[in-house]
Amino acid sequence: MKKPPALKGRTDPVFDLLVRPPHKQRLADYLGLLKPLDDQGRYLPFEALRYRWAAGLDVNLCWALVKKARVAQYINLLPLGDPVQWGKYMLTPLAQKTISIVDRQTTSAALDYMTSQIGERAHFNYLLNDLIEDEAIASSQLEGAATTTRVAKDMLKHQRQPRTPDERMVMGNYRMMNFAWEKRYEPLSVELIAAIHRVGVDGIDDEQYDPGLFRMNDEVVVQDGEGNTVHRPPPVSGLVSRLERLSDWINLSDGLPQQKHYLHPLIKAITLHFALGYEHPFRDGNGRVARALFYWFMFKSGFSAFRYIAISLLLRNAPVKYGRSYLHTEADELDLTYFIEFQCSVIQRAVSAFSDVYRKSVAYTEDFEFWLTRSGFFDRLTEKQRALYQVAKSGVAKEFTAGNVIEHLGCSYSAAMSTLNGLVDVQIFERRKMGREWVFFLRAATNGLKNGSDISRSRSVPA
Asked: 398 and 324: one domain?
């Protein structure tokens, strides 16, 4: 066996400093910092680490050791900006865990299995559409829309025309998310980026947004809540060519997992999210487009469950951390690990919330069907009526119209009205004329069971 070569000297200035006074007296303390993560496994920026190092250590030298450990594990992702800098990252335990969760719980195959376990899918379909609305609403609220979630839900469920700029923002985001789903088989292009923006902001305030048009000057900046400029995007000169370069990178095949240069779609989607925000190609609406493109790439890569996973719902609750993950990356030589780490922490919680909804839906379905059989209603109702009754009992939807029954059950108008009127005939639903259409809802006398646990406790009690 050939022995490794002997090291005859150090040429690294960092290590040269360590063996000189006054640092050599604390050599063990310094060498303990030669690792990319802190003792709790966190990938922290300089501003957080500097307060965790032992008293008396040279802060600059400590940081040099941490950076040395990180640089050794960097993976180059893509060139960004002008002048060009390479965006890079380090694959951390948090990112690996998130990739595993995403692979197991959010693929198209995983979603098909979930829906097959529900049995009668109508209840779950209503629930999934409710989750689609969550992302559109939260993404708008993250950008400053002042409308409440309840009002926004009402608008989307009834497909009524938005009445305010904030409601138009929500409706635009909803259309943009559906557009991203429809365009999931297309390659990324400058035209597609512009089209997503146009769908999302058209009609809100066209003079402010310039739907589908890229910024024309370098006056667009990102400011914090106090009006301080925290990000100045790359110059408008060369913007289109840089977006073309980004599109080419996204459209490259990443090969198979066992290949040397494989990059998991989740990491690539998060990087796309960052790159759009970094370039800031539009006068306004950049954050919404960046998040929509994240979803678009996950859809494109076969992770269909992301259609029902609301990332912005959690980003809305931590806007400062979201913004700082951008700033830490830009401040540290475009080390995207900070941004990827934060996004992975959010995605883990969002996927977990989606899985909880699924598990509760399965349990509720089993309890509801058992209760329905014991109550004597099972044989009196058609399959579609049982589905709507279950949706109403669970609270997923409180009002029903022929239009939304057609949308969720995939039936004709006559079948939808027959189903709804049948529930009125057996005194489960009531109906009321609202404008030009009939609206159906659960009768107060049958509304005692709110969730699966209530059904479990009331299995022998008919409605």
From this structure: no
